[in-house]
Amino acid sequence: MKALGEILAELSKGGFRITRARRSIIEVLLNTHLPLSAEGLLESLERRRVPANKTTVYREITFLKERGIVQEIQFLHERVKRYEVVFGSHHHHLICMGCKRVEDVELEGELEKYEREIMKSKGFKVLNHTLEFMGLCEGCR
Amino acid sequence: MKALGEILAELSKGGFRITRARRSIIEVLLNTHLPLSAEGLLESLERRRVPANKTTVYREITFLKERGIVQEIQFLHERVKRYEVVFGSHHHHLICMGCKRVEDVELEGELEKYEREIMKSKGFKVLNHTLEFMGLCEGCR
DNA sequence: ATATTAATGCAACTTAGTTGCAACAGTCAA
DNA sequence: TTGACTGTTGCAACTAAGTTGCATTAATAT
Predict the structure, then answer these.
(1) CA–CA separation, A60 vs A63, rounded Å?
(2) Closest Cβ opposite residue A72 in set B76, B94, B125
(3) Are A133 and A93 contacting, i.e. CB atoms less than 8 angstroms apart?
(4) HSE toward the beta carbon, residue B105, CA cutoff 13 A
(5) pLDDT digit string (tens) for A7-52?
(6) Residues in B touching A127 (Cβ below 8 Å)
(7) What CATH number is given to the structural domain containing B45?
(8) Inter-chain CB pairs, A–B, below 8 Å
(9) Using one digit for the tens of pLDDT, what is the confidence trace for A65-79?
(10) Do residues B18 and B66 both lie within one domain?
């Protein structure tokens, strides 16, 4: 995972401005590390005394997505989309149906085996995937 | 996958009514077999001359979900939810980013290995999962 | 044939996200 | 440090997807 400075330097070099809102949004996403919804992001900004408009938040998310800095996640049990800073390694989520908390998991070996299988049997080239597990966490079982 | 008659008999036995809308919705979902959105379902009904209100469609989907007859799918690249009849065996989807078509895949061996791993390392009991692959189909590559 | 109540349709509403446009504010160069 | 350039923001109004309350309709058992 990248550090704040690195991300800001990259953007700056690209000719983009480091505004108060932009810096704070990236900070919040780096610090929570569990996926936040646009509304959650808005609230976090308010708590930090960096009030922002929801339009700004949505536009900033779009901007950061386009640059591969954040990624969008859609949990099946929710209506809203969530966002998190892209990690070096691809990972997945464990969603507890009891307490609704979300944990990360990294899976060893990943799904490459399946992706090869799919290529062979269907001629379909996999470029990306989503995988989320729903269940009960240790505390809620 | 269940046949129409079986599903209807089951519902009838449960004290639910077999209305024109209900029967048609189940028929459409059985026949398309690829996941349909609520709006798509509405259009299919119109083509069959069984006009239904969108409220009815949403309520029927909820009803069929609660009874384990249909399941809801959320593709990452879309805003809408989609619905399909639950198959005997769990399967996943290949979403072509070119033509937007969706194919089914069944994966051999499934993700049980990962589910056991998650149980061991995190104490998290997996009850369900979603897995979708995004990429390019044979025709679009 | 009729009573019961599940299912429906309508209109009004909510929630999540988007758009156009005028105003504002980082950044660079002088 | 000042200004000019243009990227960024906020507002208000909008769209799309889905939900709700309530009065009406229509499957079904008797």
Answers:
(1) 5
(2) B76
(3) yes
(4) 28
(5) 999 999 999 999 999 999 999 999 986 899 999 999 999 999 998 9
(6) 97, 134-136
(7) 1.10.10.10
(8) 105
(9) 999 999 999 888 888
(10) yes
